[in-house]
Every structure is written in structure tokens, then in C-alpha cells.
Amino acid sequence: MVRSGPTYHSLMDRGTWTSRSRSALRQWAITVSAAFVVLLSVGTALGAMTEADVPGWAEGLIYGYGLLSLAAGVWCVRLIHTRDRDIRRSTLLLGVLQTALPVGPVMGFALPRFIRTQPEREAATASALYGASLILVLWRDMLGQTTGTSMVRTFAGGESDQAVTVGPLSLITIYLLTLLIPIGIGLYQRSKERLAGAEEELAATGQTAADMSTRLSRKEEREMIAREIHDRIGHRLSLVALYAGGLEMTGEDAEVNGRLRQVRRSAQEAIDDLQDLIRIMRDPTSGEFVPESHSLADLAEVIESVLGAGHQVSSTVMIDDPASAPELLTSAAFRIVQELLTNSIKHAPNSPVRVRVVGGPGEGLSITVVNGIEHDAGASARAGGLVGVQERAEALGGWTEVARDAGEFRVRAWMPWGSDTAR
């Protein structure tokens, strides 16, 4: 599925806004419902207090108790609205307030979230305490005998300020509904969250299995490639070394024997490098492949190996302080010279090759290889080896230049040495 950036982000923003709007609406609905219950409970309690026949000296205490209940009711609404900040503290305080003062079953508004977010044992304890406190809440409310002095009698029906009788079955039903509804909501939300967590875990397990399958598939591919390399290239290199050794033993020309010896040595080195690469391909955890270490002084050996193979090479190597060259520069220079000489032998086997390597700290390192054109120079320029030369030079901040001029094919590469930048 293709997603365009602006449209996708617009839909995401709209979805986030909708989710937040629903959450805020649900929060305010709970707060308004709690305020209604608190107002009704405190109102009926104040009605019962005003109708009570008490001595004159106790009227002040009754009004003080009423004001305290009203203040506690306001605090309960605030605790319910902000319960997400500290659900443990909010639930505990609401339980204490509904037990001590006629504010209604306010703990039930915080109990669902408490059950959903807290450990099972604590959730069970809070539910039991709520059930016990609810008995006291209903008993205190039932002391009022009319609809104006009892919240339960108000819900039971009847004319205003008339005595209403509530039977035991109705009272038990009200108790169970008030107790079980918040507990049921909490358990439902808890199960829903656990199910979502299980689905996420299942998805993660599936992703892990898919990743493992991909790794196994790649391992099988590496095994197949390593086997093919070993069987084909390794076999042919072994034959080259074997034939060169046989010719060296039967040959009588010292110069030819020297060249055969160089061929045999190069083939054996290639076999050793190939075996290291195959080992890493088959088991990447067995250790990193450590490339052969070279220095700029080794460039002479590369040129001599070409001379040993009977190719005409003229070289100029002038490097200031080669020992101070960074390791990355040294490796890149060695591989670039090696690759350019290989390309020259491949595409112009009968033409002499000129090699020029000059540079030093603060000056950069310049490598130029020139050979005659025996085949299409464009084909040489498109060779994969020259792409590798370009990538090596550019990786160090340098550049390459490929030109065809006066019947010659010229490749020049420059790399900075030290803090230099490409120029």
C-alpha cells in the first residue's frame, strides 16, 4: 500500500484529534454524572438535617456538618475529574469521604480505573472495601423517610416530600447494581487491555518468527553462494596453481620459471583469501573479515608482480612520508593501483602501462595509470572495476577522472591526505 505523505499525516492528525475528543467527552460525562450524584446525595442529606427535631444548641453543629458535606462533595467531584493523575490516592480519599460524609457512592466512579490499572490483589481489596462502605452509605441514606430526604427513596419514586417504602428486594437490587456496575466495567476494561497486550505480543512473536525465517533464508543463500564459489572459482584457482607449479618444475628457462612462480604464488594467495571470505559468508558470527594490511611502500610489489607476469610497466612513485599515511588512505590507494593495473592488462595486454603515484601530507595522493587503447575505451570505462575505483576515492572525499586522449586511455584518482578536501 502506497501512502502519500501529506494525506497520511492529515488522516493521522484527524484520528488523534477524534480519539482525544472522545476521551475528553467521556471524562466530562463521568464528571457531570458524579456531580449529579453528589448534589443529590448532599441535597437529600441537608433536607433530612433541616427536618430533624434537634435542640437549639445542636443546630449550629448540623449546619456545620452540612457545609462540611457540601465542601467534601465539591472535593469529590474534583478528585473524580483528576483521578488519572494518581488513581490510588483518589480512590482511597473517595472511599474515606463516602464513608464519613453523605456524598454518595463516589468511590464507584474511580473504581473501574483502579481495577484496570492496579494489581489484582489490590483491586480485589478495593472492591471489598467499596462494598462494605456502600452498606453504610445506603443505611445512612435510608434514615430519611421521604423523597426529599433520601436519595434511594427518590429513585424508588413517589410524590415530592412523601414517605416512600423501599422493600428489601428493591434495596438489595440497588445495592448490587451500585456495587457490581463499576466492578464489572473495571474488569471488562482490564480484560480488554490484556487482550490488546496479548495481540501485540502475538504480533511481536510473529515478527520475530518472520525475522528468523528471513535470517534462515539468507543463511541458506549464503551457504549456496559460498558452495558455488568454492566449487567453481576455488577449483579453477587450484588448477591454475597446480599447472603453474608443474610447468615451473619441467621448465628450463629461468625467466619463464620466475613468471610461473609468480603466477603460482598469486593463485595460492587468492585461494587463501577466498577461503577466508567463504568462512565469513557461512558464519558471519565467527569473526569479522580482516583485510590484508598494506602500506604505500607495498605499491612497488604490486607493480613488480605485473612486471613478473611479463607486462611492460614504467612507474614513478614519489610519496613524502608514506609511513604517516592513514590506514584508510593506504588501503584505498593499494586497491586502486591494483585494480587499474588489472584493467590495463585485461583491456590492453600488448601495450605498455605507465603508473604515476605522487603526493604527501597536506598535498593529497594522486594516482594516474595510462595504457594504450586496443579495445573500445568506452567498454573499459564501463567496467565494474572502475566503478569500485570511483567509490573508493569518493568515500575518502576524493575524485576520479577517466579520459581518452591521443590513442591512450588515462585514469586519474585523487584522495585527500589529512585535513584536505577534494579539489
Automatic annotation (TrEMBL):
It comes from the Bacteria. The chain crosses the membrane at residues 28-49, 61-80, 92-111, 123-143, 164-188. The keyword Transferase applies. Keywords: ATP-binding, Kinase, Membrane, Nucleotide-binding, Phosphoprotein, Transferase, Transmembrane, Transmembrane helix, Two-component regulatory system. It catalyses: ATP + protein L-histidine = ADP + protein N-phospho-L-histidine. One of its GO terms (molecular function) is protein dimerization activity. It is an enzyme of class 2 (transferase). Residues 221-284 form the Signal transduction histidine kinase subgroup 3 dimerisation and phosphoacceptor domain. GO terms for cellular component: membrane. Its EC number is 2.7.13.3. This is histidine kinase. It comes from Flaviflexus salsibiostraticola.
